[in-house]
Amino acid sequence: MLRIEDLWVSYGHVQALLGVSLEVERGSIVSIIGSNGAGKSTLLNTISGLVKQERGRIFLTDGIGPDTAKLLPREPYRVVKLGVVQVPEGRQVFPGLTVRENLMAGAYTVNHAGRVRRNLDRMFEMYPILKERARQQAGTLSGGEQQMLAICRGLMAEPKVLLLDEPSLGLAPIIVKGVFDTVRRIRDEGITVVLVEQNANQALAIADYAYVLENGRVALEGEGRALLCDPAVKDAYLGGAQEA
Amino acid sequence: MKNGTRKWLFCAVLVALLAGFVGAASAKEILIGNMQDISGPTSVWGNAVTRGAEIAVEKINAAGGVDGAMLKLITMDTKANVQEAIKGYNSLVSSGVVAVVGPPVSNIGLALGPIANKAGVPVVGSFIDPRVTVGEDGKPQAAMFLMQPSSVQYSEIMASYTIDVLGLKKIGVLYDQSNAFAVSLMKPYVEYIKAAGGEIVSEQVYTKGDKDFKTQLTKIKEAGADCLYFPNYIQEAVLVTNQRKQIGFDVPIIGGLDFAPPFASLVNDPEAANNIYLANNFSEKEPQLKEVWDVYKAKYGENPVNKVFLGYDKILLIQEAMKLAGGTSSEHVMKGMPVVANLEGTTGVLTISPDTHQPVGLSMVMYKIEKGEYVELGRYVPEKHRAPWSK
Amino acid sequence: MLVQNILNGISLGSVYALIAVGFALIFNVLKFSNFSQGGVMTVTAYAGYVASRYLSDRLDSLVLFAAVLAAAAVSGAVIAAAVERLAFRRLRRTKSEPVYYFISSITMGILLENLITIYASSNFYSYPRFFATSAVPLFGVNVAVTDMMMFALSIAALLALLFILHRTKIGLGIRAACFDVNTVQLMGMNPDFLVTTALMISGALGGVSGVFLGMNYTLYPQLGQMVVKGFVASVLGGLGSIHGAVIGAVLLGILEIFFISWVGAGWAPVFVFIVMLAFLLVRPRGIAGIIVQEKA
Amino acid sequence: MDYFVSTVIFTGIALIGVLGVYLITGLTGLFSLGQAAFMAIGGYVSAVLIRNYNVPVVPAVALAIVAAMLAALLVGLPTVRLRRDYISLVTLGFGEAIVALLNNSANITGGAMGISGIPQLTTLPVVLVSVVVCLALVILYKNSKYGRQCLALRSDELAAKSMGIDVYRLKLITFLFAGALTGYSGVLFGFYTTYLEPAAFNWIISAEWTIIVFVGGVNSLTGTVLATILLTWLPEFLRFASEWRVAIYCVIVLLIVNYRTAGIMGERELSPKTLRRLLGRTKEAPR
To answer: Which one of B192, C41, C104, D80 has the fewest beta carbons within 10 angstroms of its own beta carbon?
Structure first.
């Protein structure tokens, strides 16, 4: 669904990504793990077009077969229109808009009132709490509710690929579980998911395929469960995660 | 910016600098400075004076110039700002002008006085504040000359007309407290009225940028004024005229020069532009205007405002001073200016008093605006001077 | 006298309100006070004048008035879009601090004012009269027709603005952009488009106020310096709050008229200053009491 | 020659005023839209004392500076606790109030007709010495503990607070210092033009000074000095452009602000090291 070839990104003199290549299968969950500053968020932001790469290409393979691959545009709003939608880190909902308005903002690219209404109903069905608070300002929601809202807002855009940036950050363990259940459900509905996580344990557990980023390079890759058992991964990422 | 562009810019600046210092004066030309506001709040007048002066210069040059040399006008922008004006004046002096046509802004005249006296290049302006041409010691400022009635002369004409001719005695005054022009026209007026037995029933002020005068007008109305003296700029004159009608206050307005055309057409409401008295420098029908009027109209496609003729006359004055003193240097202009007498200008017959450096005996043409139309009432000079400081 | 003062204050305030709301709108999106609005207003006032000259033979008064308003609003929107392109677009690309926008906008305002000075300052101009009567009695005092029109149209313009902001997709986008211009891109919104639209809306409001200023106060290039009052009102109202700006503007209008009436116009600025200071000390976040979240 | 001298003198006077704005805006990150009012206070107090009360020059100047500082204290005390945007509003209102006050006290200040006949005491040497002294004071301040605290305050007020900096006191001190400098520039101005009018001190002047600081580069004192010189001379070079002068000036400022956002000097100061770098390599600059 997504193919990234030799991606280089820098901020001024600091090199964030040094030749990252990866492949995301249609309808799968691909997790990207790594420590702080490994370049995970940069990778997502580059896909979304928020950050411009120095070198490298990002392809979206929409149909079947390699011929249908096309370059992702570099303006964030165009990337969204092609169905690649990011849910940003830190639950950036619009605090002064109501829950409903936040969801409607997500549906900005969908030019069909009926479909928007249907999607909205589906979100409310999935998370009744959002329906209850539909007229409330999003800033008044709890952390977990805001994360749900952020994900739902992403879904309102009818994505083909959903990019999730640290959805479990700063949430209580019980809520984290709910978030990951949601991610799985999204995949089951046929949406490809790219998940960036520090919580390597959970991220690998639900991943179909996973990459480990280290200092801006892909250090390891493999199926989620395989990496979960990899001793190097265990030492570097899982131990720390379990202690936390 | 690329390296090359930078160097290029540097060179351009250098060339501009040199050009400024070197290129100014050439042999067969007499340079005359013209300092006007052409980019600031009073640029309408600045442009008008400049155009009038240019027409005069063209006419003189077409007739062979002065002593065989052509006049050349160098215009400096003052932005109606004292600091800009001082820089501009000094710049004109260093480019070798022999006289300067000054702006119709008294504040600039006040600031220029000491500097011009020192530099010895005379300024002929329409600074109506008498302090510009007469120093605190009562002696004339050597290099400063006025070429229209001073604010004292002018407000005396207005005050005398109010009380001696129209017989109005209960007067309300409204003026811009932050504007020197308005203040200088208000004080002598009030003193004359008081000396003549009239009464100022209400004195209201506003400040620069104010747009709503209904509050002040209402107060004047309630004080029982039987006329309103309003010596201010044309923009505010329009506002006051309209708002006077809106609050149903229908006493006459005694106005300044700024009620002259195009004022009535700006009000654009014959009901409001009614019952207004004003004094203008000239009558549009007077024959001496025709030539300049026609030239202006042909050149710019619109009717000239009164400042055009002031600009024209200033050049005439400078030319006459050169003629009288028998030379074209700044010393000659300084020497000739105070002795100019009976010069036929467009705005009247000009005689400069050596004691005050102001024109003497200049009358004004009185007008009444009735239903949007200007009705000429003839030239007027008060018989008696009542204010203590009038000479 | 009291009624007259209040009515005068409200009519003055409704002009301030149109300007203040433009300030609030742009403060929301770009986090700075857009002083170029003054220049835009001046240009639109002249644009409206040109339109009125051109159309006055063809249309009768009320239609003419509407056409002039429309022409000024459109030209305001176009100029504001141009201002965005010339003075703000690059600053947004380089993610500059709001202060640079502020500097850029003040300079742009002076530039626009000067362009008008260059092209229009050889004479005075005034609008044709749109209404036959100039004042009608109301509550025992005379109320100017233009004041009433001004008041009614200010309200209409503000309602239209609220409709756009709360009932349309673009409005939702603009409101979302107030919180975070980066995040809205991830909803598929083009921030250039949203910012330009916001500026065009404020430009159109500026156009409406430009016509009112020109109509009531004759035309001159410094007309737009009235923008300062809008700035004061928008800050008093609480930065970025639309309804706060409206309340601030009306309060400022009434306050000014009352001080002019009590202590005279000469002292009014001094008293307005003291009241303003006292108010801000008591209520440091303005009338609305909320300050939109600032950029990190 | 007079032209050259007068332009240098006006540049020097403007520079001292702009240094005040530099302290407030460049160093501390606040906005003052009423700075010209302090200039008015300095100019008027000294002029009135000398003209109306025959006070000798030195005490008159000293009192003028004190008056400007008192005014700064008056505005500063309540406002330093307000948000940044409000400071620009309050200073704007203060500036307008001072102008109104000057217009209203016509028997002392001459009102709108201004005060004329002030002795011309400002000469080229006086201005040059004043500039050097003021510049030295500002450099000392910038490199002092206070200067560093100001920079901390400018980049992040909360962090500065948590570092134990008394931000209110710091803002107030900076405000006072700036008021004194600007007041002194007003003294020089009055003693040069020999004439003062309230209209010369409106908010546009204050805004222009702020623009100069940004064109120079917000943190850079060198940039501020260069920009003052550049932007006071630029209109003189542009005189050939006649009525287009101001418009061209604006376009140039716009280009600098938009295309060299960091200003002419960015955050750099002119030192032998940077000078060498500049000469050796003209093309650099993070844009």
So the answer is: D80
